[in-house]
Design a protein that fits this description.
heterodimer; A: 186 residues; alpha+beta; two-stranded antiparallel sheet; 8 strands; B: 228 residues; three-stranded antiparallel sheet; 5 helices; 16% helix
Chain lengths: 186, 228
């Protein structure tokens, strides 16, 4: 992909009403919530819509939903790719971050922004709640539970709540690498 | 620590792709390594077998395709949790917060009993792919809290209820729910207990990888401590 392709791709990727959620890049654009992708094959209508939470189909064993939530492996690869493009194009190649905000940023800064949003899943927000635990009161409030962190398989595309297997410590554990890199940059 | 002779080592050249941004961890290229970094380096160069012991024991071997001997290819249903306590597993070993050597020849794991359950808590409980409304899933509360890269120190927490573990309740409630519903994680038992601290066990395991016997000689009693 060259600069000509990169600009329009990133316009969608960094758009908060499309792929850029407060907690990372969504697997499918939020645009498809109200505009499902429809394909007619041999008289049958197939459709894919943005589904931010758990899977409504038996696909991938029924416990994995790649149609909207935030997944760490893809996000990590996107961050690495943006850093490589930054290495090639340098500081002068700027994109709007987020799309529509009027704020210009380098590709390195765009990667760092995605990294920050992913890390935010696990941190306490201003209201004292960790997005990862959503409505789980025990994990939000109980002093014997509130600092115990699960590395979920994937995360809700709108509110960052953890979904799927709770011990996906391999790829979701990549958040440690993101934190390490963000600290080095300071 | 006779093997840990070199404290200075040359790190790989700056691989940071940030262009002109300085990388504090990489520059200057030569710096002092701490003791654990030294062990990592010794392990990488195969000088000392620091990683012989670690948390390599599987959390579960039930519900995996490794133990599938089904005649009609029902791989995920063939060996449910219920069988694990009664039949030997061919494809490996499992256990609660377990450690083993890297060939899994010697395995250590916890076994707990609250005085009420019909079975010992020897491994994580969960549902196979078609038992759960969102597929296979372990229904337990456990947390890996801390570890050194060499696994010379590890800390984990397992929450075991003082009341009866809701084995059948978890199976039945998940069977009742559809794909449209959220997963049932047994939140009832954690919600119904006022003091959750009273129903948890915490294990701190300290061992010296690679030279455990030497370590045992000098410091018995410190090697494995368990409190509940």
């Amino acid at each position: 992909m060259n600069r000509t392709h990169l600009v329009p791709v990133l316009r969608y990727l960094l758009d908060e009403s499309e792929f850029l959620s407060p907690y990372g890049i969504r697997a499918i654009s939020r645009f498809h919530k109200d505009h499902p992708y429809v394909l007619r094959v041999g008289g049958t209508e197939h459709r894919v819509a943005y589904e931010p939470a758990e899977s409504s189909t038996g696909l991938f064993g029924g416990n994995s939903n790649w149609r909207g939530p935030v997944w760490f492996p893809i996000n990590f690869l996107l961050i690495e790719a943006l850093q490589k493009f930054h290495h090639f194009y340098g500081e002068e190649f700027m994109v709007e971050l987020p799309t529509g905000s009027g704020r210009q940023a380098s590709l390195w800064e765009a990667a760092a922004e995605i990294s920050r949003r992913l890390t935010r899943i696990f941190l306490r927000s201003a209201d004292g709640r960790r997005p990862v635990y959503g409505g789980l009161k025990k994990f939000q409030n109980d002093p014997y539970w509130c600092d115990l962190i699960y590395f979920y398989e994937y995360f809700h595309g709108d509110n960052g709540a953890g979904i799927g297997a709770s011990h996906q410590t391999r790829w979701t554990g990549l958040v440690a690498k993101l934190i390490e890199q963000s600290v080095r940059e300071v | 620590m006779e093997q840990s002779s070199s404290t200075m080592s040359t790190l790989p050249p700056n691989t940071n792709t940030s262009g002109d941004k300085p990388c504090l961890a990489c520059e200057p290229h030569t710096r002092i390594m701490n003791a654990e970094e030294n062990r990592l380096e010794e392990s990488r160069r195969r000088k000392v077998h620091w990683k012989r012991w670690g948390p390599y024991l599987s959390e579960r071997q039930w519900g995996t395709v490794r133990d599938d001997y089904s005649p009609y290819g029902t791989a995920w249903e063939f060996f449910p949790h219920d069988h694990a306590g009664r039949a030997p597993i061919a494809g490996g070993e499992d256990g609660l917060l377990g450690i083993c050597d890297r060939h899994q020849l010697v395995c250590f794991a916890l076994a707990l009993w609250n005085g009420r359950d019909p079975i010992l808590k020897e491994r994580l409980f969960g549902l196979t792919a078609n038992e759960g409304n969102h597929g296979e899933d372990v229904k337990e509360y456990y947390f890996y809290l801390d570890s050194t890269p060499m696994h010379s120190y590890m800390n984990a927490l397992y929450k075991y209820p003082q009341g009866e573990f809701p084995y059948s309740q978890l199976v039945e409630e998940n069977r009742r729910r559809s794909r449209k519903d959220f997963e049932y994680e047994g939140s009832l038992w954690i919600a119904s207990r006022a003091s959750s601290a009273a129903c948890s066990g915490s294990a701190t395991i300290i061992l010296m990888s690679g030279r455990m016997s030497k370590y045992l000689k000098g410091r018995k009693g410190d090697v494995v401590s368990f409190r509940s």
